[in-house]
Amino acid sequence: MKTWLMNQWENYRTGFWFIPSLMTMGALFLGFLMPEVDRYLDSSIPVWMQSSPETARATLTTIAGAMITAAGVVFSVTIVALSITSSQFGPRLLRNFLSDSITQIALGACLASSLYSLILLSAFSKTEDKIFLPFVSIYLALFLALVTLYILIYSLHRVASATQADNVVAEVADDLEDAISRIFPEKIGEKSKDLAHCENLAAELFSDRQPKVASVNADKEGYLQAINHEGIVDLAQEFDLVIKLRARPGDFLMQGLPIAEVYPGTELDEDVQARLNKTFIVGNRRTPQQDMECAVSELVEVAVRALSPGINDPFTAIRCVDRLGAMLRRLADREMPIPYRSDEEGALRVIARGYTFPNVLNCAFDQIRQHGRGNVAVSMRLLESLEAIADCVESDSQKAAVLRQAKMVYRGCVEAIPEENDRDDLAERYWFVLKQLGEIPENHEPFNQDWKALSDKAGS
């Protein structure tokens, strides 16, 4: 239930209708409440707050018209900003812009102030030659209009700031940091304490020779946005099952293809399959709630677009590489969550499909490396980032992933860059990466040919 609510909140906050709707409903409530407050305070309202009916009507009419006009300005500016963001940084970055609450609050404040003023116009009444005017309500309308103007000014400032490349990259990087904090490590049920036992049991239960394993197929099509892990553990415990997930958030599910394997398959009926499918939240797009690679891919998309011939902005690509390198350094220091999850009694229940450091590294650098292979500045920054990452990695698999990526960066540059001095500079940076990883340079090209001279140059 918690996972579903978080996913719904993600959908609500990335739309322009939710906050404005709440604010207009609040204005509707105030519009009917405040005249009653005025009737209660009618005899105690000071003379300086009172005015003529014509002045009161003109004030409210002006506020209502001005706020509707301001709402049109907010809408127009927002559409222009969305167009710029989509064309320059990619349509997937619209999610970050749409989730900015300031723009939603500005639009909602304009609509709410206008609606409140219109409702007050209908509160004017005449009894026994006396016209009732809600003076307190009118002054509240003036105050709301003033606050709305300040919100509008700040909103325009935010829009102007949000469309700058450095700020776009920083905001996506913040989303990525939040995703890392949520997912690494991520608690799914209770962590199995006996890792070796779980590995052996999983290999035994889900081997190719195991006849009792049955597959659960997806009943819908789309991107897997989140998984209700607690619900899966409860389902497995209820029917005494062990469930091996074949999909993780970010994967595209195709109807009819397996998303999980269940042991024993004899307990797998239509009800269990339907309940298991309900724990998979599927949508039309990827979200960073449980999908860390979604935020990584957004940064990669900004970098790749910046390297395209139509934009040709290597500086933005370098900013993205810097952020990705910093993220990977933090990730290298974190404990990767083990895939085995047990119930409260310690029995193995779920085998999740998680992330690995090599996969995230490849997701972050592969496309930038491929599109920037002819750009010396971007390739140099890639090697510098890999050198910084190499300083944090400890396991052999992490070191092998960094070494593989550094080799591909260097080989691609040698093939694409004709200038010899540029190639020497890249080789020097590559030499530093190898030394940081604890490798012997003469065991790798090009240092196995004339590595000593280059080594002396790098050390000088």
From TrEMBL:
The keyword Translocase appears for this protein: no
InterPro entries (UniProt xref): DUF2254_membrane (IPR018723)
Domain of life per record: Bacteria
Entry keyword annotation includes Membrane: yes
Keywords: Membrane, Transmembrane, Transmembrane helix
Parts of the chain that traverse the membrane: 12-34, 58-84, 105-125, 131-153
Organism: Bythopirellula polymerisocia
Full protein name: DUF2254 domain-containing protein
